[in-house]
UniProtKB/TrEMBL annotation:
Residue ranges annotated for the Uracil-DNA glycosylase-like domain, each copy included: 18-179
Gene it is expressed from: mug
Pfam families in UniProt: UDG (PF03167)
Keyword tags: DNA damage, DNA repair, Hydrolase
Lineage start: Bacteria, Bacillati, Actinomycetota, Actinomycetes, Kitasatosporales
InterPro entries: MUG/TDG (IPR015637), Uracil-DNA_glycosylase-like (IPR005122), Uracil-DNA_glycosylase-like_sf (IPR036895)
Organism: Streptomyces glaucus
Protein name stated in the entry: G/U mismatch-specific DNA glycosylase
Length: 184
């Protein structure tokens, strides 16, 4: 992983990070928004200490631990990545309520177009803000977007001390089992 100066990271605020998507995915993972390290590298969940890639592997979604630079390989497993809000920030609390709501609207349009089996939003607070669902909890949601079911996962940020890597992997594994189940 390259090291970036503070100036290089700040310059990344203007970069868009392309989605890793295809039609008909098993699971479309949805982050809150790109961090500056993600924007600087162009790779989702790139910040050292973010547990997304280790949890994805430990939960059985991938047969080996992928590096952020290998994100395109997710498509071979029927997985993809997008974000609620496209704007890179140093911290998610830099986002406005309006950005979350607009991000939720655009995400619903994207999901309707791509038709993944599951949309997995990583971060209950982001899900609540984007979809105006203050009572949402981690796990499967009642909401659907067309035929796409919705699951809220814990935020894999290293700052999320409420979840360990192991308990996070267990929740991701619950989603994996549901995604592998035969469609009703």
């Amino acid at each position: 992983m390259p090291r970036f100066t503070a100036e290089e990271l700040e310059a990344a605020r203007d970069r868009l990070v392309p989605d890793v998507v295809a039609d008909g995915l098993r699971v479309l993972f949805c982050g809150i928004n790109p961090g500056l390290m993600t924007a600087a590298t162009g790779h989702h969940f790139a910040r050292p200490g973010n547990r997304f890639w280790p949890v994805l592997h430990r939960s059985g979604f991938t047969p080996r631990l992928l590096k952020p630079s290998e994100q395109q390989e997710l498509l071979t497993y029927g997985l993809g990545i997008t974000n609620v809000v496209a704007r890179p920030t140093a911290r998610a609390d830099e986002l406005t309520a309006q950005e979350y709501r607009e991000g939720g609207r655009l995400l619903a349009l994207k999901v309707a177009r791509l038709r993944p089996r599951w949309l997995a939003v990583v971060g209950v607070t982001a899900y609540r803000a984007a979809f105006d669902d203050r009572k949402a909890r981690v796990g499967p949601q009642q909401r659907t977007i067309g035929d796409t079911r919705v699951w809220v996962l814990p935020n894999p940020s290293g700052l999320n001390a409420h979840w360990t890597t192991e308990t996070m992997a267990q929740e991701f594994a619950r989603l994996r089992a549901a995604a592998e189940a035969v469609r009703d």
